[in-house]
From TrEMBL:
InterPro entries: HTH_MarR-typ (IPR000835), MarR/SlyA-like (IPR039422), WH-like_DNA-bd_sf (IPR036388), WH_DNA-bd_sf (IPR036390). SMART domains: HTH_MARR. SUPFAM superfamilies: Winged helix' DNA-binding domain (SSF46785). Pfam families: MarR_2 (PF12802). Residues 28-164 form the HTH marR-type domain. It comes from the Bacteria. This is HTH marR-type domain-containing protein. Residues 1-11 have a biased composition (Basic and acidic residues). It comes from Nesterenkonia halobia.
Length: 200
């Protein structure tokens, strides 16, 4: 089981003539090269984490998705995971069974839809991520903290624009929906731990 291919930063040589003239600007070319270096570093980090936790790419991508959506305050259903990874619902069910058995996720009843479940990270999964990715997170924080707010605002807008440019229409629709529902989706009370039957 594999992830759908993740789009990488475009190579300058692949640009159209009009884009090439713009990319020929030293600053534009340097920005493209920096994005490619970042993309390569993130790929290497992803593969190191996958090897460290002995999971396949889809398992790690699911956990990473849950980390991001948890930070956004957004609930995640198995259907969300299926759409994000471009996998069938049956494949996602097997994937979640495997992660639940390993103690990385739990499934709890959806508060508004009896037919669905909410997928959540466990404390064990958070500890695993921190143990294997804590050094990288700290290194990134140090680089970020070294920049002033004005620099960070520009970088944030730049990266957001790149992410939007690389997303397909389905991804963009999901991003808009996530942004619109993030606040209303926040649970008002801590979620109770699931029973062993719900975790399986």
């Amino acid at each position: 089981m594999h992830d759908a291919p993740r789009p990488h930063a475009p190579e300058p040589a692949d640009a159209s003539p009009t884009d090439a003239s713009r990319a020929g600007r030293p600053a534009a070319l340097a920005a493209l090269e920096a994005v490619q270096l970042l993309d390569d570093s993130l790929d290497r980090t992803h593969h190191r984490l996958k090897s460290a936790v002995e999971m396949n790419a889809s398992d790690v991508s699911t956990l990473r998705m849950l980390v991001i959506r948890e930070r956004q305050g957004t609930r995640t259903t198995p259907q969300d995971i299926a759409e994000h990874l471009r996998l069938s619902t049956a494949t996602v069910t097997t994937l979640l069974d495997r992660l639940a058995t390993a103690g990385h996720v739990r499934r709890t009843p959806h508060p508004a839809d009896r037919r669905s479940r909410i997928v959540e990270l466990t404390d064990q999964a958070r500890s695993t991520f921190l143990r294997h990715f804590g050094g990288e997170l700290q290194a990134m924080r140090e680089v970020i903290e070294a920049r002033d707010d004005a620099d960070l605002e520009v970088v944030t807008a730049f990266l957001a624009d790149l992410a939007a440019a690389l997303a397909d229409p389905q991804d963009q629709a999901q991003t808009v929906q996530t942004a619109q529902t993030a606040q209303t989706a926040r649970p008002t009370q801590p979620t109770q731990p699931a029973s062993p039957e719900e975790d399986a």
